[in-house]
Design brief:
single chain, mainly alpha, Arc Repressor Mutant, subunit A, 2 domains, 9 helices, about 75% helix
Amino acid sequence: MRNSYKSERAKDLTQEIKTVFYESLAKGEILSVSALSKKLGINRATFYRHFYDMNDVLESIEDDIFKEVEATLGELDDKLTQEEFYIEVVHLIKKNLGLLAYLMETGGIAENRFFLRIISYSEKNYMHSFQKKHPKVPKEECENLFHYSLNGSISLISDWLKRGMKSPIDSFAKTMNRYNKGLTEAILAYYEED
């Protein structure tokens, strides 16, 4: 993204470009530079003063959402139950549904920069704290539990989205919590029983 704003209008137009692009993704439309420019009533040269290409717009939106995810999860109190945590996560998913649905459809998780950033953030903030709280569980087992749980959660989220989010957020969050809690308790029982 080209960051040198010379005016408030230029900054506003950058945001408008991202908004129109995001709204098109939410509707399942993929816009070209020409189509997006036409929707905004600007010419292509104006678009290119703000972004290098459409992928640059997508990455800028991903960056914005990732900052929001970091801020939201960072502000969550450690006293929240795991279920309350999942409810907050599912609310974030619903809020950013257009982008997440698009990313899941077009590249999945393994090749997507946004999901890799989420995985790295989660690993740094959750897996390592789990290891500290449960030193009897071998590091490799903690990593396996983390990846299995994260991939299972992402799969559940993907299915929930494909089914049109028919389960209410709280109910869906309880399901995610129940599966992850059961898995975690089984691992802890195995390694921490005396």
